[in-house]
Amino acid sequence: xxxxxxxxxxxxxxxxxxxxxxxxxxxxxxxxxxxxxxxxxxxxxxxxxxxxxxxxxxxxxxxxxxxxxxxxxxxxxxxxxxxxxxxxxxxxxxxxxxxxxxxxxxxxxxxxxxxxxxxxxxxxxxxxxxxxxxxxxxxxxxxxxxxxxxxxxxxxxxxxxxxxxxxxxxxxxxxxxxxxxxxxxxxxxxxxxxxxxxxxxxxxxxxxxxxxxxxxxxxxxxxxxxxxxxxxxxxxxxxxxxxxxxxxxxxxxxxxxxxxxxxxxxxxxxxxxxxxxxxxxxxxxxxxxxxxxxxxxxxxxxxxxxxxxxxxxxxxxxxxxxxxxxxxxxxxxxxxxxxxxxxxxxxxxxxxxxxxxxxxxxxxxxxxxxxxxxxxxxxxxxxxxxxxxxxxxxxxxxxxxxxxxxxxxxxxxxxxxxxxxxxxxxxxxxxxxxxxxxxxxxxxxxxxxxxxxxxxxxxxxxxxxxxxxxxxxxxxxxxxxxxxxxxxxxxxxxx
Length: 495
Description:
The chain is an alpha+beta fold.
C-alpha cells in the first residue's frame, strides 16, 4: 500500500471514529436528558396531583361543614345528605393524600397535624348534628358558635394551602427545569449536528483530496504513457547528439594533437639537416672544409638548432596542455558524485567574495536574486561551474563600462532549478553560441590566456549533474548563461 493510500485510510478511519464517538455521545446525552425529562415530568405530575387532592379535600370538608350548618340551622334532614357524602369521601381523600406525600418530607411532616385537625373537625361536625337530632338544637348552635370548629378549619386550610403553594412552586421549578433541559437538549443536538457535519465535511474533503490525487496520478500516468514515444525519440536524439559530440571531440582532439606532432616532425627533419652540417664540420677527417660548409655549420649551431628545439618544446608544451585538459575532463567525468543539501545564497556569496577584488577594480557590482535557496546536488561540481562562469564574466568584461553581474535562482517545473548568470560584457556572436562549449574552441578576440576548455568543462559538469547549460548573448550587450539542474540529484544517483 502506498503512503498516499495509507494516509487516506488512516484519515478516513480517524474521521469515522470521531463521528462515531460524537454520535454515541449525542445518543448517550439524549437518553440521559430524556430520562431526566421523564423524571421531572413525573415529579410535576405528582405535585399537580398533590395540589388537586389538597383542593378536593378542602372542598369536601367545606361541603361537610356546609351540610352540617344547614341542618343545624333549619333542622331539615335533606342537608345531611351532602354532609354524609362528604364525610365518606374525606377519610378516603386524606388517606390518598397521606400516601402521595410520603416521598415529600416537607409535606409528610405536616400530615399528622392535618389528620388531627380533620379528625377534630369531623368530630365537631358530628357532635353538633347529634345534638340537633336529640332535640338540643340550642346546644348545637352554641357549639357551632364556639371557636373550636373555626380553629380546626383554619388549621386544615393553612396546611392544605401550604401543600398547594409548595406544589405550585415545585411545578414552576420543574417546568423551568424541563424547559432548561429541553434547551440543553436542543443545543446538544445542534452542537452534535454541527460536529457531525464538520466531521462529514472533513471526511468528504479527505475523500475529494484522495480522488483529486488519484485523478492527478491517473492524468500523470496518461501523460507519461502519451509522451513515452516522444521521450524515446528525445532520448534517441540525445544519444545521437552525444554520439556527434564524441565524434567532434575525437576530431578536435586528433586535429589539435596532430598539429603539434606535425610541427615536431617538421622541425625534427630540420634538426636532422642541421645535424648533417654540424657532423660535416665536427667529424671532418678528409681535410679542410670550404667556407660555405663552415658557414652552414655555424648557421645550424647558432640559429637552426635553437629554433627547431624551441618549436619542438613549444609543441610538446601545447600537447601536454591539451592532454592535461582531456585528463581533467575525464577525471571529472569519472569522479563519484556526492549529493548533499546546499544553500545557494551562502555558496554564491562565498564565490563572489573570492573574485570581489577583481570586480571592484572596474567599479563593478553583483546583484543576487535568490527565489529558490535550497537544492540537493554535488557541491564541488556546482562550485566549479559557478566559479568558471564568474571568472569568464570578469575575463571577458567590456573595458569601456563597469562590470554588472547578476545571478538569479528560481524553480523551473516540479523537479528542476534554474540558475542564470548574466553580465554586460563583450557578448558572443550568435553563430558561436554552441561552439564555445566545444573543447579547445574559443570565440571573439583572443586577447586572454586560455586553451578553450573552460565552458566545455562546465557543460560536462552540468551533464554529469543531470542538467544542461545554454547561453543567450549578443555582441557588445553581454551574455546570460542559463544552468538547469535537478533539484534533487540523489534521486538520479539512486536510479
